[in-house]
Specification:
Largest sheet of chain A: none
CATH superfamily of the largest domain in chain A: Cyclin-like
CATH topology of the largest domain in chain B: Transferase(Phosphotransferase), domain 1
Largest sheet of chain B: 6 strands, antiparallel
Shape of chain A: globular
Number of helices of chain B: 17
Distance between the termini of chain A: 45 Å
Strand content of chain A: under 5%
Radius of gyration of chain B: 22 Å
Distance between the termini of chain B: 19 Å
Order of helices and strands of chain A: HHHHHHHHHHHHHHH
CATH superfamily of the largest domain in chain B: Transferase(Phosphotransferase) domain 1
Oligomer: heterodimer
Helix content of chain B: 25-40%
Structural class of chain A: mainly alpha
CATH architecture of the largest domain in chain B: Orthogonal Bundle
Chain lengths: 251, 438
């Protein structure tokens, strides 16, 4: 999808960091902190990733699914929209939107395989019901742009096509953050290239300068990615369990 | 498909079901009206948006019996229409789930281009045709700019609003393109509008397939009947080659590499003028560019808009002044008597009375082109004369029955009307909505 990003609904829906980092009131009432809110999102991103490996879909389907997931929680609470159900449903919806449909039956099978928790054993009808709710929550905007394509093009342009694999991995990791909701995809791609050039000791300062983009933003995104690597390298299972249990408190 | 079709009449004065529907408000905003017809995957009904006072068409997609949630086709349409906002593309105003169905709210469209083309009481002047084609191409150029291929261009999917604006609709087959090496299915478009590269099974194609179909629609506006009415994929190619000649390798170098390539017996290209005797030179030039075989050298929608056909006289008619069928439920008083017992959307039978039949059918195209005693022009003039006296509607613009000109497959005349087509389409989609209609 090499379509024009700036004319897309995606570009019009970009948010500020402060708008994304808001714990919905209902979740706040249950004592969920911003850290826990972020933690659950990281955990569920990983879950979508693992499910995707079983049902075998392309990278961009996963990326779209995660984008839907994160977008939903800028508008809805985790209390009302149960993350363990929303996550696979996002994958289901994204697979349709990206034209590589995964059967709900198959998804349900792997959810059962991956989840030991009895409460998370969903039926097909649960997924289909949630699909409708998600469509509404997303206001039916389904087209999402990703940094993968600009990444390859920019690396080609910079004369570093051999670093594609490495940079691609960093792009994958950016989906564990909310960057896709905040920055245009090519800026995220540039940040990933920036980190790559620094780590691989390539001097590309002049190339970056010629691009005429705001390098401050690129550096800020890069710093955020590095921060993430420092803080979220290991996610303790107990903390996830504590956070998810808070959501289940009856009030 | 939310067009109004006479062959799909509303259940007027209907039973209890209609009664209960008519006074129902959906989600406090829409006042439900009569059923307009049935699309590929749901019932379409008229409604009034109480918020804006606007008349809308609501397409209800039933989900109850689906094992796979929201229909894939519907999802495509929603996804793309949310991104495409243009005066020549149907607007998706709203969407909401209600009573086990997803409701899509579109702007209400009075008619469609098929109804215009088929309606014998409508005369299309060259300026009218230019206007309809221009609006079609504008919508198409916009889609292509946004990297969307429509893949189901046909008169029936070009809707006409009360202000005369033509809008592209039914994006259920449309998809985004532009990723190199992505493979698509070639089973798209109604056959008569399918580009030759699709018929030869290509999986990698671009916006050119829409341009070919737009060319077919242009031809249909001129002829008042579909130009290339093949009854199978092979026959479709035969019809194309009979009309435009078998492509030479110099015309289309990649042809032999296409997956389903088969060699066709060489047929030379007859002059386009024989098919479109009434068209202007500029119109013929544009047609030939839209019907260019090699998709790489086929004109783009934007280039077509910049073609001198559109800048030359006559200027395209203003949309509001275009002739169009009277809206559904509107006054029928001015209708000519012969139109009363046949709906404007009936495709096949009424045509025969106004079509000119070639005197020597066996002769086919060769007979016309290589006629020993008469020139083509004389033949055509002769045809026109016969038409004037034989046809009931002398005031209709004359057109030569092209299938009589082309090939020997003339005996077969597809009598697929819109009811049949929506039936087939529904069957193919295995839409549970189908049962609902009975």
């Amino acid at each position: 999808m090499a379509a024009n990003f700036w004319a897309s609904s995606h570009s019009k829906q970009l948010l500020e960091q402060v708008e994304v980092d808001v714990v919905p009131q209902l979740d706040k009432d249950r004592g969920v902190t911003l850290d826990e809110f972020k933690l659950i999102k990281v955990h569920m991103t990983n879950y979508i990733w693992r499910l995707a490996q079983y049902v075998k879909v392309r990278q961009r389907v996963v990326a779209t699914a995660v984008s839907y997931f994160r977008r939903v929680y800028t508008r809805k609470s985790m209390t009302e929209y149960d993350p363990p159900l929303v996550a696979p449903t996002c994958l289901y919806l994204a697979s349709k939107a990206e034209e590589s449909t995964v059967q709900a039956r198959l998804l349900v099978f792997y959810i059962r395989k991956l989840c030991n928790d009895e409460r998370h054993k969903y039926e097909i009808k649960d997924i289909l019901e949630m699909e409708m709710k998600l469509l509404e929550a997303l206001d039916y905007y389904l087209v999402v742009y990703h940094p993968y394509r600009p990444l390859s093009q920019l690396l080609q342009d910079a004369g570093l096509p051999d670093l594609n694999h490495f940079a691609w991995g960093i792009v994958n990791d950016t989906y564990k953050m909310d960057l896709i909701l905040i920055h245009p995809p090519y800026m995220i791609a540039l940040a990933c290239i920036y980190i790559t050039t620094v780590l691989k000791d390539k001097d590309k300062i002049s190339w970056f300068e010629e691009l005429r983009v705001d390098m401050n933003i690129v550096k800020n995104i890069s710093l955020e990615i590095l921060d993430f690597y420092d803080n979220f390298r290991v996610i303790p299972e107990e903390r996830i369990a504590v956070a998810l249990n808070k959501l289940r408190v009856k009030m | 498909m939310m067009s109004l079709e006479a062959s799909n009449p509303p259940h007027v004065g209907g039973g209890e079901e209609e009664e209960s529907l008519s006074s129902k408000k959906i989600v406090d905003r829409y006042l439900k009206g009569e059923i307009l017809g049935e699309g590929t995957y749901g019932v379409v009904f008229k409604a009034i948006d109480t918020k804006t006072e606007q008349v809308v068409a609501i397409k209800k997609i039933r989900l109850g019996k689906q094992k796979e949630g929201l229909n894939f086709t519907a999802l495509r349409e929603i996804k793309l229409l949310k991104e495409l906002h243009n005066p020549n593309i149907i607007e998706l105003i709203d969407a909401f789930p209600y009573k086990g169905g997803l409701h899509l709210v579109f702007e209400f469209m009075e008619s469609d281009l098929e109804a215009v083309i088929r309606n014998r009481s409508i005369i299309l002047s060259p300026a009218d045709i230019k206007s309809y084609l221009q609006m079609t191409l504008k919508g198409l150029a916009f889609c292509h700019k946004k990297w969307v291929i429509h893949r189901d261009m046909k008169p029936n999917n070009l809707l006409i609003g009360s202000d005369g604006q033509l809008k592209l609709a039914d994006f259920g087959l449309a998809r985004m393109f532009g990723s190199p090496d992505r493979r698509f299915t070639h089973q798209v478009f109604a056959r008569w509008y399918r580009a030759p590269e699709l018929l030869f099974g290509t999986k990698q194609y671009g916006a050119g397939v829409d341009v070919w179909a737009a060319g077919c629609i242009f031809a249909e506006l001129l002829l008042r009947r579909p130009l290339l009415q093949g009854f199978s994929d092979i026959d479709q190619l035969g019809k194309i080659f009979a009309a435009f000649g078998t492509p030479k390798p110099s015309q289309w170098p990649d042809l032999v590499y296409l997956p389903d390539y088969v060699e066709y017996q060489y047929v030379p290209a007859p002059p386009l003028r024989t098919i479109f005797p009434m068209a202007s030179d500029n119109a013929l030039d544009l047609l030939s560019k839209m019907f260019t075989y090699d998709p790489k050298s086929r004109i783009s929608a934007q280039q077509a808009l910049d073609h001198r056909y559109f800048s030359s006289m006559p200027a395209p008619t203003k949309p509001a002044l275009l002739p169009r069928p009277s809206p559904k439920g509107g006054s029928l008083n001015q209708k000519p008597p012969f139109d009363l017992n046949e709906g404007p959307a009936v495709l096949s039978p009424p045509r025969k009375t106004r079509r000119v039949i070639l005197p020597q059918r066996e002769g086919g195209l060769e007979g016309i082109l290589n006629g020993a005693d008469t020139t083509t022009d004389e033949r055509i003039r002769k045809l026109r004369n016969t038409g004037d006296t034989a046809g009931q509607s002398g005031k209709m613009p004359m057109s030569v029955d092209n299938s009589a000109l082309i090939g020997s497959g003339t005996a077969f005349r597809p009598t697929l009307n819109s009811v049949d087509r929506s039936y087939l389409k529904r069957k193919l989609d295995m839409d549970p909505e189908f049962e609902y209609s009975q």
